[in-house]
User: Which sequence fits this backbone?
């Protein structure tokens, strides 16, 4: 999720290639899928480098990361720097960024009632988009 402070890291060719691979994606992509895209484009970036850069980019707020139902981390370029959540289609992978003031208030209230401060949270909502619901994928 976004909303974290961005850290200045040394730009690298690999990080730029990964950012470019994610630039136009509307769906979340796994590190393996991104690695395969880079390889098919002739860009030699090791899988471990892809993982390392994606983790750094997520920490820096450049990419969003969510966990799939089977526990795999998947990534997408952030469309906004503001804190947000996602609704993700289980069928086609379409992801929509949403803000949810009610969720923000709820998280703060629940945390405060237990004595927590400096609260962060992740909310993942998935379902089927209109297209996948209608069966016209």
Assistant:
């Amino acid at each position: 999720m976004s909303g974290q402070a961005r850290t200045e890291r040394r730009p690298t060719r690999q990080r730029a290639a990964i950012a470019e691979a994610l630039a136009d994606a509307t769906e979340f992509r796994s590190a393996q899928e991104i690695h395969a895209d880079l390889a098919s484009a002739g860009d030699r970036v090791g899988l471990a480098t892809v993982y390392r850069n994606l983790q750094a980019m997520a920490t820096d707020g450049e990419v969003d990361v969510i966990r799939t139902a089977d526990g795999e981390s998947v990534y997408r370029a952030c469309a906004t720097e503001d804190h947000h959540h996602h609704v993700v289609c289980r069928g086609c992978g379409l992801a929509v960024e949403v803000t949810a003031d009610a969720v923000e208030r709820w998280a703060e209230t629940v945390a405060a009632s237990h004595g927590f401060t400096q609260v962060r949270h992740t909310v993942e909502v998935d379902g089927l988009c209109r297209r996948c619901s209608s069966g016209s994928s």
In short: Strands lie at 29-30, 63-67, 73-77, 85-89, 95-98, 124-127. The radius of gyration is 16 Å. The longest helix spans residues 47-59.
